[in-house]
C-alpha cells in the first residue's frame, strides 16, 4: 500500500512554469513506476508522463513533450513534474499514480494507487 499526496498546483499565466510534487508514503517507493495524469472538466483522465523505477526511462504525451519533465528522487519518496511554457489547454487537475508492476505505462487502468490531485490553472 502506498499513499500519494500532490502539491505545487496553482494559477499561472500562459508561458509560465510550475513544478508539481508527489510525496509517497512507505518504504517501497523505488519498486513502483510512477505516472502523472490530468483531467479537465468534462473530459476523461489522460496520460501526461511516466517514469520507471530507477528514473532511467521516461515517457511523455505528445502534447507536453519538450515542455514537461518528469523526475523522481527515491531517497525522498517523491516524483516531480516540471511544467514549462504552460498553455491554457494545460488547465486540469493533475494526479500522480503508482504502478506496482513497475512498468511506466500510459494507461490509466494499469496504475494501482492515486493521489487526490492538484489543480493547475493557466490563464491566457
List the helices and strands and how they pair.
Layout: E1 4-7, E2 10-13, E3 18-24, E4 33-39, E5 46-51, E6 58-60, E7 68-73, E8 78-83, E9 92-99, E10 113-114, E11 118-123
Parallel strand pairs: 2-11
Antiparallel strand pairs: 1-3, 3-8, 4-5, 4-9, 5-6, 7-8, 9-10, 9-11
Write down the secondary-structure element order.
EEEEEEEEEEE
Strand content: over 45%
Total strands: the figure is 11
How many helices?
A: 0
Global geometry: globular
User: Which class do the helix and strand fractions yield?
Assistant: mainly beta
Oligomer: single chain
Average pLDDT for all residues: 96
Structural features, described:
The chain is an all-beta fold. 0% of the residues lie in helices and 48% in strands. It is built from no helices and eleven strands. The protein has strands at residues 4-7, 10-13, 18-24, 33-39, 46-51, 58-60, 68-73, 78-83, 92-99, 113-114, 118-123. The strands form two sheets. Strands 2, 4, 5, 6, 9, 10 and 11 form a seven-stranded mixed sheet that branches. Strands 1-3-8-7 form a four-stranded antiparallel sheet, with no helix packed on it. A hairpin with a 6-residue loop joins strand 4 (33-39) and strand 5. It is globular. It starts with a strand and ends with a strand. The mean pLDDT is 96.
